[in-house]
């Protein structure tokens, strides 16, 4: 009997955090959650925990995490300086992607994420938002598990709708590159949904994002 060959799938993970946070009246990415943790670092650390879990503890893992990164634009120098001064474990396998066109809207950051994934010849691109503060390593793990199982574009489902975080197939890259302005990736997810080629994972934590100081105060007061 011939040996069964498992095809390793290359996955790139990118956190989008290039916006100017005008409604926050400050650098939202660096908003303090605790004395030792800030908003963007929270997302990075949860994603890194997921990657480490797969690399160290999942037997016969057929996913190769080839790279992970954060896209920065507005306030890049200030944010990058904070990242560099953060604990080394926070930056494990995390690159910084410069988005000089951040003022053109969210689509410009998605384009940079796709370029990064294509550079690494990825089979899948996980896109997350830096301000979805409640997302946990378990949430990322559930998303990756379903992508691995179904081999379809896979996204979060919350508040009766689809959205990010999501994992896009390489087949989606051209469509993502066609997004413009402040349009996010939901258009591509809807296309997949209409074609019955989308896997949805219920992630209630994805409903919580931080746009204003009031949002942050509410979350800090009500988080588990």
UniProtKB/TrEMBL annotation:
Organism the protein comes from: Shewanella aestuarii
Domain (MobA-like NTP transferase): residue spans on this chain: 13-193
Molecular function terms, GO-annotated: nucleotidyltransferase activity
Keyword Magnesium on entry: yes
Keywords for the protein's UniProt record, in alphabetical order: Magnesium, Transferase
SUPFAM superfamilies on file: Nucleotide-diphospho-sugar transferases
Protein name: Nucleotidyltransferase family protein
Highest taxon of source: Bacteria
């Amino acid at each position: 009997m011939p040996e069964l060959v498992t095809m390793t799938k290359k996955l790139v993970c990118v956190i989008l955090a290039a916006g100017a946070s005008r409604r926050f009246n400050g650098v939202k990415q660096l908003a303090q959650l605790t004395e030792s943790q800030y908003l963007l670092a929270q997302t990075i650390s949860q994603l890194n925990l997921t990657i480490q879990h797969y690399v160290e503890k999942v037997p016969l893992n057929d996913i190769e995490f080839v790279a992970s990164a954060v896209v920065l634009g507005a306030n890049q120098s200030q944010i990058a300086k904070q990242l560099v001064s953060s604990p080394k474990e926070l930056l494990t396998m995390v690159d910084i992607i410069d988005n000089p066109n951040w003022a053109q809207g969210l689509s410009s950051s998605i384009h940079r994420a796709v370029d990064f994934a294509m550079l690494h010849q990825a089979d899948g691109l996980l896109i997350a938002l830096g301000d979805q503060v409640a997302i946990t390593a378990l949430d990322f793990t559930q998303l990756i598990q379903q992508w691995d199982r179904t081999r379809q574009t896979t996204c979060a489902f919350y508040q009766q709708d689809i959205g990010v975080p999501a994992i896009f197939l390489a087949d989606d890259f051209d469509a993502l590159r066609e997004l413009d302005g402040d349009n996010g990736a939901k258009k591509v997810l809807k296309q997949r949904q209409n074609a019955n080629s989308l896997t949805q994972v219920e992630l209630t934590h994805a409903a919580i994002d931080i746009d204003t100081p009031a949002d942050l105060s509410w979350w800090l007061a009500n988080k588990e």
